[in-house]
Amino acid sequence: MSQAMPLTPSLDDTWTSAVAGGPGRSLRVRLKPLSSDWVHRATTRVDVSWRAPWRDRLVHGGPSLATDARMIALERAITTAVEASGTARLQIVETVDCVRTWSFYATDPAQLVDHIEMIVNRSDVPRLAVTMTEDPEWIADKNARADLVLPKTILVPRPQLVAPNREKSFTETTVRASR
Length: 179
Known about the structure:
- This protein has five helices and eight strands; from the N terminus they run ββαβααββαβαββ.
- About 30% of the residues lie in helices and about 35% in strands.
- It has one domain (about 15-150): Alpha-Beta Plaits, CATH 3.30.70.
- The two termini are about 35 Å apart.
- The strands form two sheets. A six-stranded antiparallel β-sheet has the order 1-2-4-5-3-6, sandwiched between helices.
- By secondary structure, the protein is of the alpha+beta class.
- Helix 3 crosses helix 4 (about 110-120).
């Protein structure tokens, strides 16, 4: 009945990813590492949202594999074009239920929107919602990072008896902790 939704593959391996869910709700997030160069140059956040058909949510709990594949193709087309031109950088990708939102930080938002329109006009993408917000402090990125629960590796002492003149032994354990 339900198809497993894979985490959207990244364009490269520098993304931090998390998947969460609750009753009737699914959330997938990917964050690109911060680049101090972009933080100072790009002050406008452009959010592009695609709402998958509600049938996808009813049947699959989120975008179906077919819809997800179309979303991945759109993401790659836009990201490749805008990052090659130096116009914008894809920073956050969130999928909540049936809505996927790509958050770009742009040095030239008008040119980013032109790229998006050109790509959408050449494809079979349904209507997208595009919003622009001045975000010189990168608040959306900071909030996404603060809300994301990431695995952290910490050293935890192994419970064992230790001879008086020997060092304690430690083992590496991965625990889930918020940043």
